[in-house]
Amino acid sequence: MPQTADVVVIGGGVIGAAIAWRLAVGGASVVVADPAPGSGATGTAAGMLAPVTELHYGEEPLLRLNLAAARRYPGFVAELTEASGVSVGYRRTGTLAAAWDGADLAALRDLHEFQRSLGLNGQMLSGADLRGLEPSLAPGLPGGLYAGDDHAVDPRRLHAALVTAAERAGARLERQRVQRVEVDEHARGVVLDDGTKLIGACVVLAAGSWSGSTAGLPAGIVPPVRPVKGQTLRLRLDTSERLTHVTRGTVRGSPVYLVPREDGELVVGASAEEAGFDLRARSGAIYELLRDAQALLPAVLEMEWVEVSTGLRPGTPDNAPIIGSADVDGLVIATGHFRNGILLAPVTADAVQQIVLTGSTPEDVRAFAPQRFAGLVRPT
Ligand SMILES: Cc1cc2nc3c(=O)[nH]c(=O)nc-3n(C[C@H](O)[C@H](O)[C@H](O)COP(=O)(O)OP(=O)(O)OC[C@H]3O[C@@H](n4cnc5c(N)ncnc54)[C@H](O)[C@@H]3O)c2cc1C
């Protein structure tokens, strides 16, 4: 028997779960289809909310969206915690970018100037300042940059909170893969792996790296998303050498970050590999992460080993997300969040809520419409 809902969401990662929550709160009946919600990039991510230290030259439009998302985070976390009863590990202690050598410090100074020209807060630190803030860092680091507005959250807890809040608001989770989308001149719903039809007035495509391989989408509508593999390590330290701040660095040209959680977990990340949909952990990436992490924080080598996790960042040709109505009535796309999906979840969910419930697209996501890739020749 076909089932019906106002909205069918394909994918229950952080993006699909956040969208389901906001739509259900807005009064829509929602079904989310996902065989393993939270098992995608969401479960691997470190959870940095870092518009300042994640800034890459040439990505100013994305920066504006990242800043809008960061501003929304405190309210979003408060509302979500209230709705779900789940604490999401939101930490506002700020981020340290530690320089490895003099050349690195000079590069951080340039980045600091660029950030200031864009109105972003940051403060250059001497080596002594750095160790004053984090006494466990390696002696001899020449200095760094403090970004007080770059925070962090625990993505796994965030996802659990979103699923709970969405279900409490009436959304339903269908633990199955979408086999294909049903589209004629209008999106009609989806067919699940067991053949069940979910009929929806609106379909939201939020399947992360798999969004481009969802069957049934007309050729011109398929979003140009590719998987960018990333590995993170989870370690644990129960002593006073725990970090207080998210700490990042570039050790001999190789970027690494350390994200502490209140319970003593430390997330070390991350590799960036163009390896298709291969999710196997690669020993070289683990070695490089441990090598570079211990160069910043020697205590890394004394920590308990907990886990290696591999995820696929949904990358796009311009590294920015794809959010908006497709050129088929009733089909909305919310994917391609690449390095920033945890940060961008609230702003994406609010945008999709407005698009679906009112038909209008909020100003802050207009630059990220699917149509900007129209005519793009896709690799076969
Ligand atoms: C190593 C690493 C570190 C990261 N660190 C950060 C960070 O510090 N801060 C930050 O903001 N972002 C970070 N990210 C990026 C962030 O994790 C992603 O942008 C975000 O998780 C994307 O969420 P999503 O819901 O779109 O995709 P995913 O979390 O990948 O979820 C997609 C879901 O779709 C489901 N699915 C796939 N195909 C189908 C189908 N046919 N039918 C139904 N369901 C389907 C999958 O099961 C999966 O649950 C990191 C990513 C990685 C890999």
Q: How would you describe this protein?
A:
The chain has 380 residues and is of the alpha/beta class. The protein contains eight helices and 18 strands. It has helices at residues 14-25, 41-44, 60-84, 102-117, 127-133, 155-168, 283-296, 341-358; strands at residues 3-10, 30-33, 48-49, 95-98, 123-126, 143-147, 151-152, 172-174, 178-183, 187-192, 197-205, 226-236, 246-251, 254-260, 265-269, 304-315, 322-325, 331-335. Strands 1, 2, 8, 9, 10, 11, 17 and 18 form an eight-stranded mixed sheet that branches. An eight-stranded mixed sheet has the order 5-6-4-13-14-15-12-16, sandwiched between helices. Strands 3-7 form a two-stranded antiparallel ribbon. β13 (246-251) and β14 form a beta hairpin. α1 (14-25) packs parallel to α6 (155-168), α1 (14-25) runs parallel beside α8 (341-358) and α3 crosses α6. The two termini are 37 Å apart. The relative contact order is 0.20. Residues 10-16, 33-37, 39-42, 44-48, 177-178, 206-210, 214, 230, 232, 269-270, 311, 313-314, 335, 337-343 line the site of flavin-adenine dinucleotide.
Key terms:
8 helices; 29% helix; 380 residues; 27% strand; binds flavin-adenine dinucleotide; alpha/beta; globular
Using the alpha-carbon principal axes, give the shape.
globular
What is the average of the pLDDT values?
A: 94
Query: What is the H/E string?
Result: EHEHEHEHEHEEHEEEEEEEEHEEEH
Rg of Cα set: 21 Å
Spans of at least 5 consecutive residues whose pLDDT stays below 50 are none
- Give me the count of strands: 18
* Coarse structural class: alpha/beta
The percent range for helix content is: 25-40%
Number of distinct helices: 8
